[in-house]
Design brief:
110 residues
Length: 110
């Protein structure tokens, strides 16, 4: 159930925000979800996380991110391969296959 909520419901919410904006999304979700979103946002998005996001944006704008990617690519992507290995979650993928199998309206992508 958590897999479904995190991935499949997220698409519905993102599509709604894309089409009508964040305020329309807030009006469309339950009061519980809206309330929880505000409280969780206050907890997760702190001055520290804002500063880190600004650092990331600065790396993108300055070209530092692109340079790191190009350097890694020139070496046949060893860092990207390490990151793929670190974040690969076979158990989560197996759950996804099972959950998507229960939704015949989805077109198979794999």
């Amino acid at each position: 159930m958590a897999y479904f909520e995190c991935l499949h419901e997220a698409k519905l919410i993102v599509d709604l925000m894309f089409e009508a904006g964040p305020q329309a999304m807030r009006k469309a979700i339950s009061n519980t979800a809206e309330y929880g979103g505000y409280l969780a946002g206050e907890t997760l998005v702190t001055e520290e996380t804002r500063a880190r996001m600004k650092d990331i944006l600065s790396d993108i704008q300055s070209g530092a991110f692109a340079q790191k990617l190009m350097d890694d690519t020139a070496r046949k992507s060893p860092h990207l391969d390490q990151l793929r290995e670190r974040y690969h979650k076979p158990d989560l993928e197996a759950v996804g296959v099972r959950v998507r199998g229960l939704m015949p309206w989805l077109s198979p992508k794999r």
